[in-house]
Amino acid sequence: MDFQVFSKAEIEELYQTMVSHMTEEIKQAVEREYGGMDEFHDHYIEYASGENGQKSYKKMIEWYGDKESALNAANNPLDSQIIQSYEKLYDVVMKKLAENIGKDVSSFEVKEVIGECGFIFKQLYQLKDEKPLMLDMAASYKNCESMKTVLDEKYGIGITDFFVKALDEFYNNKIKIKTEK
Fold first, then answer.
1. What pLDDT is recorded for position 125?
2. Rounded CA gap, 13 and 18, in Å?
3. Which range, 13-22, 79-88, 98-107, is most confident?
4. Secondary structure (3-state) at 147
5. Residues 69, 132: contact at Cβ < 8 Å?
6. Alpha-carbon span 141 to 78, nearest angstrom
């Protein structure tokens, strides 16, 4: 096991915090999926200490700016009602973005919507700077066909490509996008 980013004690702390905030419904689903909470614990620790888990934690630290801030956010999650409110705001913002498809991504209207989206994620995830998260999210939407399909189905065909271009313009950074063969 590899604990380069977070120590075994920190991963255990993250696990305990996550479980303490699970609803009974989620706990029951986890127990069905993994055969019990002990089995889920073992799976979580194994994943978190593996290469992919550690890469995810590195990315989390990048989003938060430092390890202490990342741990603080993970150990002090927002209330579920607050999260639902931010999800509703995101839905409203994405609908506004869909209304602007076809406009120049450097237009004020499009930049305003992307700024709102960034603000939502900055608040939701308690980030100092949302840029790394937003660019990672854009790359994920562009590079993952299933995510693109979900976004396009919900907000309209073409929204994913438009969203990625608008994020790139707003954050003035070129996003690395895999090309399909």
1. 86
2. 9
3. 98-107
4. helix
5. no
6. 25
How far is Cα 103 from Cα 178, in angstroms, rounded to an integer? Answer: 25
Q: Which two three-digit tokens encode residue 93?
A: 């913002």
Query: What would the two tokens of residue 41 be?
Result: 């614990």
> Residue 157 above 60 pLDDT?
yes
CA proximity to 132, closest of 173, 71, 90: 173
Q: Is 97 exposed, middle or buried (0-12, 13-18, 19+ CB in 10 A)?
A: buried
Residue 49 · residue 2 · CB < 8 Å: yes
Alpha-carbon distance values, 26 to 41, 88, 118, 149, 171 (Å): 14, 21, 29, 26, 36
Give just the sign of the alpha carbon dihedral 103, 105, 108, 111: positive
pTM, entire model = 0.69
Amino acid (one-letter) located at 144: C
Please state the length of the chain. 181
Contact 120, 90 (CB under 8 A): yes
